[in-house]
Every structure is written in structure tokens, then in C-alpha cells.
Amino acid sequence: MAKTSIVVRDLKRKKMIEQYAAKRIELKELGDYEGLAKLPRNSSRTRLTNRCVETHRSRGYMRQFGLSRISFREHASRGEIPGVTKSSW
Length: 89
What we know:
Elements: H1 4-30, H2 33-38, E1 61-62, E2 67-68, H3 69-78
């Protein structure tokens, strides 16, 4: 489980990205890079971190499933993820 402060910080960034999305697109189309630089840093989409839906873990994140490797393994072993089977050869 990730620290609560880090999870809250990431949620704050998500809200800020949504808030400034239209303005960022508009400034990019105009080519006003000085105006973009004046916007808050956390309004940039690259500042967002992919996190596991369950544990909010940032490392070992599997984009296709939205889970960390640990949560993915637990769900896969229980058969809760359709189409995923344990490999054997």
C-alpha cells in the first residue's frame, strides 16, 4: 500500500490536469510557449504517475490491466482475470 500523502498528491494532479487541459491545448495550437510555461507544472499530463487501482503501487504497473504485478498475480491465480492462464511447457 502506497503512502496516503502520495496517493492524495497524485489525485490532486489528476484534478489539475483536467482543469487546465483545454487551456493547454489552446496555448499549444497558438504556439504560445511562454504562456504554457506560466501554467502550473502539475497541470502537465506527463507529471501523472500510473498507479495500481487496488494498492496504488507505482512500480511494477501493468498498463493493460491497471494493476501492479503483485495484484495481477493474485487475481490471475484465483482465475479472476479472463483469458489469463498460468503458462506451462
